[in-house]
Amino acid sequence: MLNLNVFKSPFTRTSIFMALRPVRKEKDDTMTVKETLNDGLKRGYEIKITAAELDAKVLEKLKEAQPEVEMKGFRKGKVPMAMMKKQFGPKVLGEAMQESVDGAMNTHLETSGDRPAMQPEMKMANDEWKEGDDVVVNVSYEALPVVPEVDFTNIKLEKLVVKADDASVQEALTSLAETAKNFDDRKKGAKAKDGDQVIFDFLGKVDGEPFEGGAAEGHALELGSGQFIPGFEEGLIGVKAGEEKNVEVTFPADYNAEHLAGKVAVFECKILNVKEPKTSEIDDEMAKQFGAEDLAGLKGQITSKLEEEYSGAARAVTKRALLDELDKMVSFELPPSLVEAEAGQIAHQLWHEDNPEVEGHDHPEVETTDEHTKLADRRVKLGLLLAEIGQKAEIQVSDAEFTQAVMNQARQYGDQARQFFEFVQKNPQMQQQIRAPLFEDKVVDHIVEAASMKEKEVNKDELQKAVEALEEE
């Protein structure tokens, strides 16, 4: 009958940063808490609530509710306490027991300064407890360790600086020109090839009858683009302007229009023109296709974009170097439960990367290895360290920063962006997963500001090698 889940939030990797929130101050002097285990970070306690104390709490709750209680045969507020206790006693008893244990636990954490690494395990000492017995609850958990101070001024870092050179800008322009290709008329009588654009009228029929959405005039289709259902574009290879051709295809079995799914259709096509692709000239006209006033303006946009990308990549290299330094500088005992949970998540994630065809969790149990545990040790240590640094520096993620991050992620979902936004609003765990990397980046920036930083100019190839080295580790 007793729900003793005092700490509701399950552990996730990102929750390391949230584990350092201060506990709620709530004292109850009628409870007794006795230490039963103190070994490293392991803690054990016995919480005892006497039957008399519990009964007094139940009576107090019933008296508070009595003025509002109505019962057949009695006026509002005049129900006898004996009948109140008989009618509502069991429910109130459970609430009183839960509140008493929660209060005792919170008071203990406030007094001791302990911060549980994960949800404490709580168990009734007497499985056959009945009303009138003392309540004895055994509590065990691993405490978060004391994290040592770090002198940031002793950290020496290197910031890679890359300028966007003319060759890089020209390479980007050439790539844009290829994506902004135009089409010119082929010679009269020329046959359409893969990659050509065909301008045509068409009328689709199933069982000899036209169907809704199966007709168009003057439609432009790039052959090989995959715009139409499988087999259609291939059926137009070799057509010529002025020609008429029937193309027979079968709609996929999972086609989104159920009345067409799996059906054979014949498209009556009248070819109006056949055009060949032509790469755009790199000039002012091409620049306007990308929203720039002229070619000079487009070059400026490309330069800014490239240097922004270089800066982001360089920051990732600096951040890794910083984390490596912190990992070497700091050592403290880690809660085994956090390391074990993190190693399990790492193993699970890597297994799915190696088996992308498997979705969900319907697969054999994934065993952790020494490598997983080694990486988990590093992540947990750095997570706790950054959390401590951030808390002491009073670093917070503002509502505006959080909202902007959610909006950035929502854009990836296109038409479903609104649903994603609403999902985040209703999901505290998802909110935490979004806030955690924002918090981490702000803490990293805080440390970098105090560290010794030296700039080093490199070219983009050298930066690329540095980024690839990160991915190999």
From TrEMBL:
Any coiled-coil regions, as ranges: none
Q: Name one GO cellular component term.
A: cytoplasm
Where the protein is mainly located, per its record?
cytoplasm
Quick one: a GO biological-process term for this protein? Answer: protein folding
Q: Mind telling me which InterPro entries this protein's record contains?
A: PPIase_dom_sf, PPIase_FKBP_dom, Trig_fac, Trigger_fac_C, Trigger_fac_C_sf, Trigger_fac_ribosome-bd_bac, Trigger_fac_ribosome-bd_sf, Trigger_fact/SurA_dom_sf
Its recorded reaction(s) are: [protein]-peptidylproline (omega=180) = [protein]-peptidylproline (omega=0)
The UniProt GO MF terms for this protein read:
peptidyl-prolyl cis-trans isomerase activity
EC number(s) given by UniProt: 5.2.1.8
Compartment(s) where it occurs, according to its Swiss-Prot or TrEMBL record: Cytoplasm
UniProt keyword annotation of NAD present: no
User: So which residues are the signal peptide here?
Assistant: none
According to the UniProt entry, the note on domains is: Consists of 3 domains; the N-terminus binds the ribosome, the middle domain has PPIase activity, while the C-terminus has intrinsic chaperone activity on its own.
Q: Its family? A: Belongs to the FKBP-type PPIase family. Tig subfamily.
Annotated function: Involved in protein export. Acts as a chaperone by maintaining the newly synthesized protein in an open conformation. Functions as a peptidyl-prolyl cis-trans isomerase.
> What name does UniProt use for this protein?
Trigger factor
Could you read off the lineage of the organism from its UniProt record? Bacteria, Pseudomonadati, Pseudomonadota, Alphaproteobacteria, Rhodobacterales
